[in-house]
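Running low. Invent one:
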Amino acid sequence: MKRRAAREKALQILFQADLGKTPVEEVYQGAVNETEEDDFLKQIVFGTAEHLEELDQLIEEHLVNWTLSRLANVDKNILRMAVYEMKYMEDIPFQVTINEAIEIAKRFGDAESGRFVNGVLARIQETLQN
């Protein structure tokens, strides 16, 4: 599975788990068949779920005139995944993660999602690089 496809699948799994208040493991098992098993997908899904509180706090600290609870569920889960990548997947350059998140936000979010995700992730990048 290509990384873009894995990120999109991860978003769908995390979104569904978040919206349905369903355990991530359960959603993952229902969403991924044996031919789709992918280490990158698994790492993003379960890594994001494992560090959810920490990721949400970091995102919340970098929101301007917003709160996490007001964010669209798609945008919130894209940010969570991207921040997980930025913080824990050191082999992926920040700019690659940010660009991927923007493209996914444009595809799955609303008209402003790409720009919004870019702004939040740029602020988080500054914090993580210092």
Notes: The longest helix spans residues 3-20. The chain has a mean pLDDT of 95.
